[in-house]
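worker-03 picked up job from queue 'complexes'. Input manifest follows; two sequence lines, order preserved.
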Amino acid sequence: MGTQVKDVIIKPDAPSLLILDKHADYIAAYGSKKDDYEYTLSEFLRMSGIYWGLTVMDLMDQLPRMNRDEIIDFIKACQHECGGMSASIGHDPHLLYTLSAVQILCLYDSVDAIDVDKVVEYVKGLQQEDGSFAGDKWGEIDTRFSFCAVATLSLLGKMDKMNVDKAVEFVLSCMNFDGGFGCRPGSESHAGQIYCCTGFLSLTGQLHQVNADLLGWWLCERQLSSGGLNGRPEKLPDVCYSWWVLASLKIIGRIDWIDKAKLRRFILACQDEETGGFADRPGDMVDPFHTLFGIAGLSLLGDEQIKPVNPVLCMPEDVLQRAGVQPDILS
Amino acid sequence: MHGRLKIKSTAQQEEEKRKEREKKLKIYVAARDACFDKRKNGILDDEALQLTQQLLSSNPDFATLWNYRREILMHQETVKDEDEVQKLYEAELSFLESCLKANPKSYGCWHHRCWVSARLPRPNWARELSLCDLCLSVDDRNFHCWDYRRLVVKMSGVPVDQELEFTDRLIGSNFSNYSSWHYRSTLLPLLHPESPEAPSPCLKAPETSPPPSPQTQSHRVCEEQLLKEYELVQNAFFTDPNDQSAWFYYRWLLGRAERDEMISCVFISREDERVAVAFSRPVNAQTIGLLLVLDGQPQRVEWRSVHPRFKFCPVWICDLPHGTISDITNEHNLTVHWTEKPTHKDCALYTGRAESYCRDSATDQELFRSELSVEKTSVLQSELQTCNQLQEMEPLNKWCLLTIILLMRALDPLGYEKETLNHFKTLREVDSMRSAYYSDLCSKFMIENTIMKMEYAEVRVFSISDKNLTTLCHLDQLLLVTHINLSSNQLQRLPPQFAMLQCLEVLEANNNSIENLEGLYRLPKLEEVLLKNNKISTVADLKPLASCPKLKRLDLCGNPVTQITNIGSELAELLPSVTDLLL
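worker-03 finished. Artifact:
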């Protein structure tokens, strides 16, 4: 009973050149169909959606095409009394959208548009006794939220406001036999969580705690014959996992362990030549989420038409320089 | 949007779809606004439950609506009696079941189920466990369900061995199940811990135990169980040699216990009036309560890591107060205390001696090879035979090849060196996407072998030329090395970690591709640096050398930097101590 290897085949006529103009047009047009059913359905994650769109525009040096004032007004309206930010107006605040909002404001050098002290209070208030972070007041615990918390506070220069030692202890308790990390202690390793946890350890100056050789092996084994990377063993490749695995490898200083040319070919094949944008896999529907991670992946692979991206915060390096944030990377 | 195939459609189809979507949008927006209005007005009634149910059925990631439902349910708790509340929450669980059937990977649904289960007046954990069984029988990799299962197991005190049997069953029906192997890796150390402490009989409730973690609990398994486990994995990879799950698990089984935290080496130099201390893992010596006592007197010293890039580092240095040990006719006794652990290391500097050290070598500590028990040796030998048989049948199976290398290293790393190198060569060919990984791993193993050879020979010379090295590692083990020969390899840099070679006098690294010398930083004894035929291209690349006070001889022949006009005078200015410059 041989296991079938799950992978995709890249057709010979798949896109192989980067069509940046089309991607910029796709993102610029995306926000204009606000009355669309599908668009409305995704309002529960709007703030992150805006972060994906604006970041990819900035990486392509097209940020001025977006409506800055409208976006900053929207963000202001999404800050709640407790300090947290919601995905849309009328929705409840959550760490996921608090980070996205702060990231967007950093792109615009406008962090002061919101009440920063209250954001800090909100983030701090979600830390639990064991060092973990709840995503909101309803208590879901996940290492993703540990990342959101330290990323938000480090962008605001307020990391000292939380209990860093305890937070580190919790994240390390989620380390597994394969060197990877899961959502909670005992949870299976997953590329998305590994990205969050290595990013977290980078921001807290604790990367020496990672077993980089073991984790790097697991990560480089995510690359399939198509060149794409999956998020866990025996899963299909996906542009967003390509980013999470690639960024994690970069953070732990092992990016050379995958075949970069093959990954580039896979990412390029996920472009839609008609509409612009990237899909999860060749031939699927595009969306802003995969468009950001496609472009960011190409940037980490060294494409010079794109601005250098920071592997920890998935933001343009020049933005982080302005914000004075320089996360660690293992050498 | 994951896995949604793009389908071409005609203009008419598009128009029909557009109309349909418009209709759906109207219904959706009306329901959403009705929900938000009710919530704004503080209404927590049955109708609100129905409205949110309608919306969440099609859009389970709308987190705010789950929050609203929780507010309503909590309110109902205060106005209903226990039986009614029980019924209410049971209805919630069946609603969630239908949501999970449609969206088995929705974070919001699973979190809400955790929340409801915790609030149910009379929870039925057995039913929750069978729900997990059912869900995992549909998709045995659904990590949300696995996490929920772990919660149920913890809340209801399911014994560890019962869960281990569950993984036996899943693995028995399908070896290719990484999630089950992972679960096993968390259960085995609980049931059969390496340390002699009593095994814990069940996964305790949260209030009595912290989660098992690398900090609170060893991840290793006792030898007896380990040997049984090898057999199970062997069955798996013989059934399907290309399934990676079992191979990953096997590598974990072959792994080593984590090192104890200790001071592994103390070195004193009389001339430099300096102490270097090596630890078994990277530490921040400024915060771990390090105390240096010289001849019974605690000294106030400032610890610094070997390179400003490191806040955590295995090697730390301090300067002793001027004149304390400089008189060669005096004998001194030094102790470094790690007060937090607590542990310490003594080192005596005798009359007439310029330097002294005290250490536990890599060989003593069994870092790279262990003394195996007779039983383990014979089991590993037979494992190696089995893998060799498998490899004969499947000569290009990379998993098998890599495992053979690991078994050889566990059994006799020096004796199998030649075979190991051959297998790495094959690995690079059959799995070319990861050739850089195999090169780095091979470099690591060759460095380990060379360290062992150096220690058996009781010398302070580390020579590893012409071995296709692509990376340097274990440099903390080379603290006492005075001569290093890295010539004719494929190194691109001397990384900051290289500054841990605090005793280094001569560096030979000819014929590599070195372009970065960051690690040649404040090496107090370094006199000779031979870098013929490398890729050093600018004077700035050589800047770190200016921090090495004793540098006399520098060979840069065959580097691009020698083509720069006036290079001689520029280098004379940058490196005034160098008297013998070869360009």
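worker-03 released lock.
The mean pLDDT of chain A is 96.
The CA atoms of residues 203 and 327 of chain A lie 5 Å apart.
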